[in-house]
Amino acid sequence: MELRFESSLFIVYFLGLILIPIWNKVRKSKGNWLLYELGWFLACLIFYLLSLEVKSRTYFIGIPLVFLGIFLFRYFKEKRRLSNGLLFNLFLISFGGYLGLLAITTQDPLLILFLVTLFIGLLLLLLVGLYAIIIFLYWNALIVWRKEGHSLANLLTLFLAIGLTGLLVLDYVSGHFLPQWMASLFAIVPMILIYFAIVFYNFLTISIIYQFNRPKYTQDYIIVLGAGLIEGKRVPPLLGNRIEKAIRFYNKQKEKTAKTPKLVMSGGKGDDEHLAEGLAMKQYAVEKGIPETDILVEANSVNTLENMRFSKEVMEEDFGGNGYQAIFTTNNFHLFRAGLFARQASLKANGIGAKTAFYFLPNAFLREFAAILLMRKRRHAMFCAAIVLLNVLLALLQLLTSSLAAG
Predict the structure, then answer these.
(1) 353 by DSSP, 3-state: which?
(2) Domain ranges across the chain
(3) What is the pLDDT of residue 45?
(4) Residue 261 and which of 208, 323, 370, 390 are 20 to 30 A apart at CA?
């Protein structure tokens, strides 16, 4: 009976794998069908796990469900929180613990095989992951160097690759040639890097989750966040992608609900620019067929926070109050940080992200992460100071112990 159930589930699962891309092609969807495949796999896995729970009369699934419930409650209450990334990762950790507990309890061969495969994959990732990351970062730095120029902001992946290479050398030297107390002092650097790696992972988690915003087609305004202009007067491809994203939403909303939103082009005039970014963006949108009457311009902001604050003022003046609905568009790597600034400006708006060339994403996310760190620099400085203090105390203790032993 159990074999028949498992066989039937596998047949249904593989049928889904085959039919999903066909269904996606028939409906002419531009969405990523791999996400549907992942969703289908998770649905079948959860169904199988629930069947094991029923047979063994256990309720272990309640453990990860509690963490998932906490994450979902906090996320839908306010999506623009960095702590949401930590909450989601706590759910993943609890789900992993749940799988292990269920495997021990039920001794199910398929679940054990799945966990062993997963464990081997994670082990290989730990063994070669850092080396693979370093090689990838050097390769990516070379691509960005060739395509985007040699500015400091475009060299972040190169700096990180060099730093990680130095870390490997430092780890080898401290482990083979230094006394234990001195090795504890040298451990300060890798421990701080591990701390920032965890912070980055949480940031990356919520940044990816935030990409899945699906705003309702009931918006009154779509804010387009500005960026620099080419030769001080022309819209570059990066900014053009933001405007195109807003135009697609604009047209889709008109098609679905007949409610026409207004585009708010937000961007001031830089020192090296001939006109305000907002005006250049308006001209770009008009050339794409958007009526001038559907475009508002905010031409005073010089950063993302001011984009949000001044756009809010423009919308309130145009709407005659604050009861409007609004979203904003920017590039996908900038989406979550822009959401943080919208929250800081008391603007109730979430964003939709325009696609960015893959080769540019690692450098762009590192730049975003650096900006996120600066937003909460006092908190991170306190954690780093605590790591330094603990390691210095440990080194002093080890030095004292070794001196007493030698005496």
Answers:
(1) strand
(2) 2-124, 129-210+378-406, 221-359
(3) 85
(4) 208
